[in-house]
Amino acid sequence: MRGMLGRALQVPIGLAASVTRGAGRRLGDVALAGLDAVLASRVAEEAVDRALASRLAEHTVDRVFDQERLIDETVTRLLESDELWVLVDSIAKSPAVTEAIARQSVGFADQVAEGVRERSQRIDMRLERAARRLARRPPRPSSEAP
Description:
The protein is an all-alpha fold. Among the domains are: about 1-40; about 95-140. It is built from five helices and no strands. It has helices at about 1-40, 40-55, 55-80, 80-90, 95-135. The longest helix is centred in the last third of the chain and has 40 residues, at about 95-135. It starts with a helix and ends in a 12-residue tail after the last helix.
């Protein structure tokens, strides 16, 4: 009997939950439409103007600058501390960092070598063309180019 009663109650409970969700969505939509209307009105503009003219705005700006000064002081103290530089030194000497630097250095060296190789090939071709002109020989066919 309890099982039948439980199943019988599930239908109205599910229906009530569905109605509540739908009403909640509608209420949210109405609230947002009301907010849009207020923000589009002259009342919102006047409220912002009054808030900015109040002592609250000045107090807020003072607090922001106080926090900024606190951050600046903290950073200055941190940069002056020996502990920071010990930490930086240990990080710089860590295997992961030295491996990353080595990998990056090899990649950079490869790029430089490729650039030098391309430039030297272009210079070789120019010199060879100039020598062939001086010797009055025809230019080398492109398939023979190095």
